[in-house]
Model the fold of this input.
Amino acid sequence: MDERLAQRLEHARPQLQVVWAALNVELDKLAFTPGTITLRRPEEAAYRLDRDPASGLDTLVGIWRDARGQKCGTVLIHGDGSFFAEYDIIRDHPRNERWFVEAVTAWGRGEIVRSEPRLLPVAI
Done:
């Protein structure tokens, strides 16, 4: 691993844990049967640095993959301290048949963390 990437990843570890916890809170609120969905931990993602063309700063990009190697989530920690993460759920809503759960998302900056599920209406 590139030294710059290793340093950035080490610095971002606390923020990655906060983001992962926020995704899990949203998943828990949906009330799926316990054990049916488990989000991969931050250390299970593959990381790289990408240059943000708008700011010129590096963004730490983490990609989660499922057992088949398919992308199932992304986390971005921008150089300005803002972040965004999404993790695919791709399941019917467990309590409301009018909704399909596409993903859970989290975003914010520093200590400010917001999160929500991304729901799609189901034609009934």
About this structure: The longest helix spans residues 3-30. The helical segments are 3-30. The chain has one domain: 3-121.
